[in-house]
Structures are given as C-alpha cells and as structure tokens.
Amino acid sequence: MRKALLIALAANVLLFAFTVLLGCASTAHKKDITEVKMAVKMPLLAPLRETNPLQEKGGISISLSPILYQVIQDSVVKDVTVNPSFLEALTAKDGAVFFDRTVTPVLGVTPDELRFVIKLNNKLNHVIRGAGTVVSFVINGNQIALSQEHYSELLNAIVVPRGEAQLGISGPKLNAIPDSCTIGLFLYDFVTATDAAGNPTEKQNFEWYYTYKAQTHEQMGSVKKTRMVRQ
Known about the structure:
Elements lengths: L1 H29 E17 L6 E4 L2 E7 L3 E12 L4 H6 L5 E14 L2 E10 L5 E2 L4 E6 L2 E3 L7 H4 L2 E2 L4 E10 L6 E15 L5 E31 L1
Antiparallel strand pairs: 1-13, 2-3, 3-6, 4-5, 5-13, 6-11, 7-10, 8-9, 8-12, 12-13
C-alpha cells in the first residue's frame, strides 16, 4: 500500500514538473520583442523670397499655402510556417500548423502627395467661375503632367461677388519628388471678365514658387514576433 502511494506521489510530481516545464517553454517561445528605429521623410515647403503667397489681379485675390503633413504609424504583418518544438508537438492537435507572426511597425506621411490650399476672394461685382483654368506644376524646371481630377474643386468653383472660396489642389506623389528641389505652381487663364454672351474677355495668370526639402523624422518602435498555432 505504501509503495503504491509512493508511486502515485512520484507520478504526480513528475506530471507537475512536466507541466511547469511545458508552460515555461511555451512562454519562452511565445513572443519576442525587438526595439527598432523607424524613419520617414517629412516634406517641408517655404515660399521663395520673390513669391508673394497672396496675389491680386483683375479684381480677384488668391492666396496659396501648403497643407500640414502628419506622420502616421502602420504595421506590416508577415507569417512564416515553422516546425514545432518537441513540447509544442506533444500538446498540439493532429493537423496543427505552427507559424511565427512578425508585426513590424512602419512610418508614413499623410497625405502621400503634394497638396496646396487656395483661398479665392472675389472683389468683382459679378460671379466668377474656375471653369477653364489650367493648373500646372513645375519641379526643378520640369513640367509635371496632371489630370483635371487634381484640381476639380477649382474647375467647379463658383464664387459670388464679395464671396470667398477655399479649394484644394493636389500634385504628384511625395515619393516621386526629389528630396531637395524648387516647386512652381501655376494657374493659367483664370477668367475674370466675360461679355454679354458669356465669352471670356479677360484672363489672369498666377504663379508661386516654393522650396521643397524632405526632412528625416525618426522614432522608436517594437517589432513583435509571436509563435502561433492554427488547429
């Protein structure tokens, strides 16, 4: 009888030790965290000395300013199938698949394209429309082709006498712009006067020049690697 109790006690001790060992092994391989330095390029724009952000021609005034960009954090998830450890295999169900999931933080900038805000003030005694205006970007002397979708707000604008409108204009993607360059934005053929039949009789052109620099922004993040099982 005493021998049987000793055998049972020994079995329980071994079971407890095995359970603790299994728990420790699972915890050791469950998650791995590594600190990394992340970096992203933030655009900085400033008007050239000879450029006046606020310009008035033909009875209308237009001011131009770049938007404020923000740093955002996202993550990239990658799963890699792995062979289970001995203890993991003992506790897994038939057909279980073990894999390591790595979640890597990444930085980005929003928006991811060049954007400006135009404030239009109509000082005339008649309605003005943005229809027919052509917008052009020039980067380091090279003209950038743009579809009308980039300045559709301007094309659809209707501003009553002594009224104002705030409109957005977008340009190329930031990753297509050199880290250091000069950017020109041009409005061509903005109609400021028409005849009785509505035909344009007066048009104005506006132009602005900005310096563009991509400044590196850095911050720390955590790469998390987790052992997972699909059963």
